Amino acid sequence: MPTNFSRRDLLKAAPAALPLLAGRVRADEPPFTGLTVRMHEPRNLEFPFSSLKSWVTPNEQFFVRSHFAVPKVDPKSWKLTVEGEVENRVELTLEELKALTAVTRPITLECAGNGRVFLTPQARGLQWGFGGVSNAEWTGVPLSAVLEKAKVKSGAVEVVLAGADSGIIADPATPGPIHFDRSLPLAKANQPEVLLAYKMNGEDLPVSHGAPVRAVVGGWYGMASVKWLTRVVVTRTPYTGFFQTLDYSVWERKNGLPELVPVTTVQPKAAIARPALHETVPAGQPYKVFGAAWAGEQKLERVEVSADGGKTWETATLTGEDKPFCWRTWEYAWKVPAEKGTSKLLARATAADGTTQPEKRDPDRRTYMINHLVPVEVLIK
Ligand SMILES: Nc1nc2c(c(=O)[nH]1)N[C@H]1C(S)=C(S)[C@@H](COP(=O)(O)O)O[C@H]1N2
Ligand SMILES: [Mo]
Fold first, then answer.
1. 366 CB near ligand 1 (under 6 Å)
2. Is residue 183 lining ligand 1, measured as CB closer than 6 Å?
3. Which ligand is nearest to the CA of 222?
4. Residue 299 near residue 266, CB atoms below 8 Å
């Protein structure tokens, strides 16, 4: 793909090439924002974590994770149904949803596969680096308000959120085309950090992020935040759909019996934005190590940094906004050694309940919940 610069140059030089080039510029092509393409179709894009600047990620830099093609949803005919174990089946138009009391709150989303590129041996699935994570301010209606309208029957246990997108996955195989869907226990569904959002950072929700309405589930990995939401189905038994059994599940051992359980809450993680992997840093000078850290439903307690591959640790300074269900920026003044060579930087987050990042990867987590310590090797010159 030519860069904007070379494309412009080419257009000047050879007007005859115009139709050919125009054919290559797709209507849904985002402007160049430094996002890394992890999959072309459906389009999956990674936030360029080493260029982290602002606490709120601009919409055009927010990572995109989609399993199927973006569905065509006309906001004028869009409806949300609330059905299943409810007294009143509810149907809401976009206008009716927007008429309900709105809330705006920042929430960080991290894909359960974020960091997968660091797994050895290489795991199947999208090869996210550090940037399968972003933070935005979402405006919408708490899911609880809509559930209240529908009057959930006693005995109900879960709420399934279903998207308008659908398709086939080959391996493991879906039973023909299926929609993307995911469930929440009723107790989580009723928490104030679970929104039906129609605005992102003050703008109408972008198409790639689930327009006109998506769920945003604070504290849970991204797969729970169903995009292009059209159905809310209340159930009497725990849901065992594709995306929480064959996909997005991990092994849990109870009484020595391993069983698959759905991926749920985000684990603590600190990620280094700068220096970037393999960056060259000046020898003998101070360097401000900078990054973000988060702890899901927990409060982030502290971030520590090691500049010697984990032998010694020092506390980093937490900076900027401190909001629940959001990442926090941090920095650490590193005294770079005078000798030339390499250094392995590590950052480690600890949550309020004492949970911290494991040194080693736990294979029971399959290809999800990736928060073991990943060294950022840099050159000192
Ligand atoms: N309908 C639908 N919702 C979805 C998905 C999807 O493929 N279809 N992907 C999920 C996953 S795995 C993640 S990590 C988040 C990503 O949200 P984003 O694309 O806005 O970053 O959306 C979730 N919601
Ligand atoms: Mo994800």
1. no
2. no
3. 1
4. no
Q: What is the pLDDT along the chain (381 residues), one digit of tens a residue?
A: 333 444 444 334 444 434 344 434 455 555 567 899 999 899 999 999 999 999 999 999 999 999 999 999 999 999 999 999 999 999 999 999 999 999 999 999 999 999 999 999 999 999 999 999 999 999 999 999 999 999 999 999 999 999 999 999 999 999 999 999 999 999 999 999 999 999 999 999 999 999 999 999 999 999 999 999 999 999 999 999 999 999 999 999 999 999 999 999 999 999 999 999 999 999 999 999 999 999 999 999 999 999 999 999 999 999 999 999 999 999 999 999 999 999 999 999 999 999 999 999 999 999 999 999 999 999 999
Query: DSSP letters of 227-268?
Result: SSEEEEEEESS----GGGTTSSEEEEEETTEEEEEE--BPPP
Q: Is the CB of 229 under 6 A from ligand 1?
A: no
Q: How far is the CA of 341 from the centre of ligand 2 (A)?
A: 37
Q: Is 63 in the pocket of ligand 1 (CB under 6 A)?
A: yes
Residues with CB under 5 A from ligand 2 (ion): 65, 111, 222-223
Strand partners, 300: 351
Q: Are 223 and 111 in contact (CB under 8 A)?
A: yes
Among 35, 65, 166, 184, the mutation site with the greatest number of ligand 1 atoms within 8 A of its Cβ is: 65
Tell whether ligand 1 has an atom less than 6 A from the beta carbon of residue 133.
no
What does the alpha-carbon distance between residue 272 and residue 375 come to, in Å, rounded to a whole number? Answer: 9
- Model pTM score: 0.92
Domains of the chain from N-terminus onward: 266-380 (2.60.40.650)
Q: Is the CB of 106 under 6 A from ligand 1?
A: no
Long-range CB contacts for residues 255-258, cutoff 8 Å, separation at least 24:
258/364
Ligand 1 contacts CB of residue 165 (under 6 A): yes
| 6 residue type, one letter | S
